[in-house]
Amino acid sequence: MHCPEQNRLGTGIRRMRQVAAQTLIEALRLRLTVLLSVAGAGLVLMALWLRTFNFGAAELKFIADLGLGVMGLLGTLLAALCTAHLTYRDLDGGLAAVVLTRRVGRGEYLAGKVLGVAALLALFTAALALVLGIMLGVREAQLGATFVPLPIFLQACALVWLKLTLVAAMTLLVCSYAGSELFAVCAGLMLAVVAHLRPFTQAEGWLSWLRLWPNLGLFDAEPLLAGTKLGLTGLLGLTGYWALFMGLFTGLAAYVFWHREI
């Protein structure tokens, strides 16, 4: 026999999965997604002009840093813009009200939204990682040099994805109470900038209050590319850190959204 709690949990997961799938489909149809994806691939491919030089491993590191930087920058824009646009399109168009009348809880609705955007960011990161990986593989063969093993490269791309999903969760929190899409986008990007300033708050000073905010600097991939091994313990620790703030931001957004009139 299945207990009622298990049935409710399974039903809730199915509803969140349905909202996430619909969010992903809507996100893939946005011109913004296509534009940023094509722009990201183009910026990564701009590193091909280095083929006229032979810098050995230094060139490979530059290409990797440039590619991961492009993924982080354009991915941050995509996370904030897509989260805000899809949320307010549902709110302004009345779709959110229709969905919430079908026994879908507000917390389930927001969790499905952030999961859908996270799936979009995973596809975005994977696409640019594929372009970057092919470029690095070709240049490694041409130069006869070895940069980093494939598992290390995949870990670096995974760290970028974790960072981007945190930006999406921050933006979702703003969307839960903000009255306009423009404000939500600007506030989400500002919160991402604040999270990038977190590494500078180690010493006492006026920025010390930022220690309560997540530290996106922990997800920088440069140490991995420089040869610093993350290890299983470090990877699990970062994953737990990410899960903690993802749950916190989504939970706060659900609480605020619960008291919002739709």
Automatic annotation (TrEMBL):
The chain crosses the membrane at residues 32-50, 62-88, 109-132, 152-175, 182-201, 240-258. It comes from the Bacteria. Keywords: Membrane, Transmembrane, Transmembrane helix. This is Uncharacterized protein. It comes from Oleiharenicola lentus.
